Amino acid sequence: MIHDLQNIKEQAAEALSKAADSKTLEALRVKYLGKKGELTAILKQMGKLSAEERPKVGQLANEVRAGIEQMIEERSAAIKQAVLDARLQAERVDVTMPGKAAPIGKAHPLTKVLDEVKEIFLGMGFSISEGPEVETDYYNFEALNIPKNHPARDTQDTFYISDNVLLRTQTSPVQVRTMEKQKPPIRVISPGRVYRSDAVDATHSPLFHQIEGLVVDKGVTMADLKGTLELFVKRLYGDESVVRFRPHHFPFTEPSAELDVQCFACHGEGCRLCKGEGWIEVLGCGMVHPKVLSICGIDPEVYSGFAFGIGLERIVMRRYNIDDLRLFYENDLRFLDQF
Ligand code: DAH
């Protein structure tokens, strides 16, 4: 029996030293120390021993049990430590590593400049009024003094949806809608998308943006138009900007003009930027045609007004020196990231 007990101790020591996890360890505890375990099995046979052998064997059995218990305890502690070490290793964070940069979106250059334009006009007491992109022939042409067969229709290649419904070719129809529902004094700008059936190239796109402006009140004159638009250009391009008004024709204004700003690059000499002109066109404008006022229910004997239409892409291109309109619509981050 003494021999058996020593055997058990050796076997247990050997098995325990190999136990790599707590499950195996628990199985070994049951195997050696459990109620049906090997040590218990031997102790059950103690009755067969003589009175003098019994205490000796009993003492040894107790030592073996205590020894195995201690080994289990040590092994258990070692396993717990190993598990913890492995976890710490796996979850290790290198605090010196650079973080992952989260890409942050930015406003599109068209939006940025539009916001500036809005800010300038809001500062002059204008408010913002928008209209539909799908328009009727009446608002886009007829009410603006552009009857059927008028040559102005040819210059605005229109996307028709049906005979009378179209994608607006200009933001000017918002003038009509505004005058129909609002009595003077009126001071609004109307930014928005417009559509023309143009082939895409560096300066043309079937979709682009305009900002319409309209002022109607008693006693509004061409001097108000000039003062307002000159101030706008100076706010947008800087106080040193030089502007000129050049006579032009639009069916819905009389008289009509185009506003040019002197080329920033050559100061009027003529260069590549201004295509040798010395001046760069910024917008179309004029005194609202009395016919248009009448059509909209405003008495031209009492009220007068001025209107203007700014091409947004154009002023943004000038602002940032962009020479190809297509860049605005391609959503190439290498381009958009620069603003
Ligand atoms: N609607 C014109 C265009 O698309 C631009 C324009 C010119 C608007 C003169 C106006 C204006 O309000 O008075 O070419």
Automatic annotation (TrEMBL):
<comment type="similarity">
    <text>Belongs to the class-II aminoacyl-tRNA synthetase family. Phe-tRNA synthetase alpha subunit type 1 subfamily.</text>
</comment>
<keyword id="KW-0436">Ligase</keyword>
<keyword id="KW-0030">Aminoacyl-tRNA synthetase</keyword>
<dbReference type="InterPro" id="IPR010978">
    <property type="entry name" value="tRNA-bd_arm"/>
</dbReference>
<dbReference type="InterPro" id="IPR004188">
    <property type="entry name" value="Phe-tRNA_ligase_II_N"/>
</dbReference>
<feature type="domain" description="Aminoacyl-transfer RNA synthetases class-II family profile">
    <location>
        <begin position="111"/>
        <end position="317"/>
    </location>
</feature>
<dbReference type="GO" id="GO:0005737">
    <property type="term" value="C:cytoplasm"/>
</dbReference>
<protein>
    <recommendedName>
        <fullName>Phenylalanine--tRNA ligase alpha subunit</fullName>
        <ecNumber>6.1.1.20</ecNumber>
    </recommendedName>
</protein>
<dbReference type="InterPro" id="IPR006195">
    <property type="entry name" value="aa-tRNA-synth_II"/>
</dbReference>
<dbReference type="GO" id="GO:0004826">
    <property type="term" value="F:phenylalanine-tRNA ligase activity"/>
</dbReference>
<dbReference type="InterPro" id="IPR022911">
    <property type="entry name" value="Phe_tRNA_ligase_alpha1_bac"/>
</dbReference>
<dbReference type="Pfam" id="PF02912">
    <property type="entry name" value="Phe_tRNA-synt_N"/>
</dbReference>
<keyword id="KW-0648">Protein biosynthesis</keyword>
<keyword id="KW-0067">ATP-binding</keyword>
<dbReference type="Pfam" id="PF01409">
    <property type="entry name" value="tRNA-synt_2d"/>
</dbReference>
<dbReference type="GO" id="GO:0000287">
    <property type="term" value="F:magnesium ion binding"/>
</dbReference>
<dbReference type="GO" id="GO:0006432">
    <property type="term" value="P:phenylalanyl-tRNA aminoacylation"/>
</dbReference>
<dbReference type="InterPro" id="IPR004529">
    <property type="entry name" value="Phe-tRNA-synth_IIc_asu"/>
</dbReference>
<keyword id="KW-0963">Cytoplasm</keyword>
<dbReference type="GO" id="GO:0140096">
    <property type="term" value="F:catalytic activity, acting on a protein"/>
</dbReference>
<feature type="binding site">
    <location>
        <position position="254"/>
    </location>
    <ligand>
        <name>Mg(2+)</name>
    </ligand>
</feature>
<keyword id="KW-0460">Magnesium</keyword>
<keyword id="KW-0547">Nucleotide-binding</keyword>
<dbReference type="InterPro" id="IPR002319">
    <property type="entry name" value="Phenylalanyl-tRNA_Synthase"/>
</dbReference>
<dbReference type="GO" id="GO:0005524">
    <property type="term" value="F:ATP binding"/>
</dbReference>
<keyword id="KW-0479">Metal-binding</keyword>
<comment type="subunit">
    <text>Tetramer of two alpha and two beta subunits.</text>
</comment>
<dbReference type="GO" id="GO:0016740">
    <property type="term" value="F:transferase activity"/>
</dbReference>
<dbReference type="InterPro" id="IPR045864">
    <property type="entry name" value="aa-tRNA-synth_II/BPL/LPL"/>
</dbReference>
<dbReference type="GO" id="GO:0000049">
    <property type="term" value="F:tRNA binding"/>
</dbReference>
